[in-house]
Structures are given as C-alpha cells and as structure tokens.
Amino acid sequence: MIGARGEILELAVVYLFYINLFFLYIGLGMTANSCFEGEGWTFPVMIASIYKSVLNIFLDWVMIFGNLGFPEMGITGAAIATVFSDFTGTILLFFFLPKLKSFKLKVHQILSVPKRFYLRVIRLGLPAGAEFMLWSAGQTGLLAILNMIDPYAAGSFGIVNM
Predict the structure, then answer these.
(1) 105 touches 99 (CB < 8 A)
(2) Lowest mean pLDDT: which of 70-84, 107-121, 128-142?
(3) What whole-number distance in Å separates Cα of residue 158 and Cα of residue 12?
(4) How many CA atoms lie within 13 A of 6 on its CB side?
C-alpha cells in the first residue's frame, strides 16, 4: 500500500514476521517503564535502553554478517537480534522493579480489584487507543497518497516526519 515492491517488500515481510514477536511482551516493557517514570526514577529505563542498543548493534554484527561462528542470516538475523535484545532489555527492567518504594506486586491484589475500576480504565483508555489507531491509519493513508504522486515524496515525508 505504501509502495514497497520487489526485494524491499520481500525483505520487509521477512523482517516483520520476526518483529511481530514484540507483541508478546511489549505491554510488560511499557508497564515497567511507566512504573519508573511515575516514580521519577528513570535511571533503570536509561540503563535498559543503552543495554538494548549496544546488544542489538553487537548481535546485528554477529547475526547479519555471520561473525563469531554464527551463520550469515541477513535480514532474518537483524530481526532476531532486535527482538532478542529488546526482550532481554525488558527483562533487565524487572530486576530494578523491587527497588521502587511504591512497587508491591501481589497477585491477589490484582485479582481483587473492583470491576468498576476496570470499567473506568476502559472508559479512559479506549478513546486514547482509538485516537492512536486512527492517527496511524491516517499516516499510512497519507503515505499511500504521497506514493501515488511521487515515490520520493513518501520518502521525504518519512524523513521530515521523524
């Protein structure tokens, strides 16, 4: 829809196949980040981000090009390296959670939350989630229109919009 064709489209499909594994744990990472940011203690988030970036660069070098005895995996290696480094960085955040003063995770407390609390969360979160989905759909539609006009316009939009 946004104009990827040929080899670029094939590589994108392979990459997205592995990157979709993010959806299995992305909520955990966002929750941990929110806990730290809510307390005003962002040091663990910074450490986890640095860890993820450094590990991803190293694993890209190893897995894309086949260094240190690994097979050369190309785009598949890049995707696996990204997912692995992000997942282990998310796990790293959880080692810092017990140091938060307000963090007292008890399963029975999670399960005993009144239903009306969940309804309030849904009432507040649903509009925000819908707005984000509509914004994303609008951006994708805009890229499709720009691509029909001129493929370079879509690329320029991507660079400027970052």
Answers:
(1) no
(2) 107-121
(3) 16
(4) 1
- Which SS3 state, helix, strand or coil, does residue 1 take? coil
- List of E strands, the chain: none
- Distance in angstroms (rounded) separating the CA atoms of residues 81 and 97: 25
Distance CA 94, CA 88 (A): 10
* Intra-chain end-to-end CA distance of the chain, in Å: 20
Tokens representing 33? 């980040």
Q: How many residues does the chain have?
A: 162
Q: Tell me: pLDDT of 2 over 70.
A: no
Q: Which residues contact 133 (CB under 8 A, 6 or more apart)?
A: none
pLDDT tens by residue, 77-117? 999 999 999 999 999 998 898 888 777 767 777 778 788 88
Give the pTM. 0.67
